[in-house]
Amino acid sequence: MLVVGLTGGIGAGKSTAAARFAERGAAVVDVDAIGREVLAPGGRAERGVVEVFGPGILNADGRIDRGKVAAEVFGRPDRLSALEAVSHPAINAELNSRLQELADGGEAEVVVLDMAVLAESRLGQLESGRGYTKVVVVEAPVEVRLARLLERGLSEEQARARMASQATDSQRRALADHVIVNDAGPEDLAAAVDELWAELTVE
């Protein structure tokens, strides 16, 4: 079972590429979604995150308010590190469980870990050896990404701040086994994924 780490900057088209991989038969694991799950009631990181940040991050119903957490850590590397020290091991533990289930099931030839912060973290690098062994980066020119983010309703200031908070294209590319350039239309991205899929499934 081949496990691929799929990443890309905001607005590059990573999630669209992940959806195309799923159409081709890959089992796609949304690592960002797991990050939300571990903060949910009963999640692996819920208690630890409350201990670090205090009850001020809770909603009236006692659930962690991810917006409040985001406000706590945005632009504050020390607070972000504190969050990751609790949440990332929890995410990796959940990832390990899911990958074991997929391996035991024997139905997935390729698993794609859809993850925004591959270059910025050790997410998906598992002590069990079940983590990703290939890295695929989806990238697009900054102005193309900016236009896509503006279409989503972000202001230019918000979009540029989000992009600046992430790894650079060169940092992601340095880790990449394969790079997909998504600077045209969805048909071109689908074709690029299809071509890579053919390569991955014969390696």
Chain-wise SSE layout:
Layout: E1 2-7, H1 14-24, E2 27-30, H2 31-37, H3 46-53, H4 66-73, H5 77-105, E3 110-114, E4 134-139, H6 142-151, H7 156-164, H8 169-175, E5 178-181, H9 186-200
Parallel strand pairs: 1-3, 1-4, 2-3, 4-5
Helix pairs in contact: 1-9, 3-5
Key features?
Rossmann fold; 12% strand; single chain; 203 residues; globular; alpha/beta
Structure overview:
This protein is α/β, with parallel strands linked by helices. The chain has one domain: P-loop containing nucleotide triphosphate hydrolases (Rossmann fold). The chain has helices spanning 14-24, 31-37, 46-53, 66-73, 77-105, 142-151, 156-164, 169-175, 186-200, and strands spanning 2-7, 27-30, 110-114, 134-139, 178-181.
**Please, what is the CATH homologous superfamily?**
P-loop containing nucleotide triphosphate hydrolases
Radius of gyration, whole Å:
17 Å
Count of helical segments? 9
Assembly state here? Answer: single chain
The beta-strand count equals: 5
Summarize the structure.
With 203 residues, this protein is an alpha/beta fold. 51% of the residues lie in helices and 12% in strands. It is globular, with a radius of gyration of 17 Å.
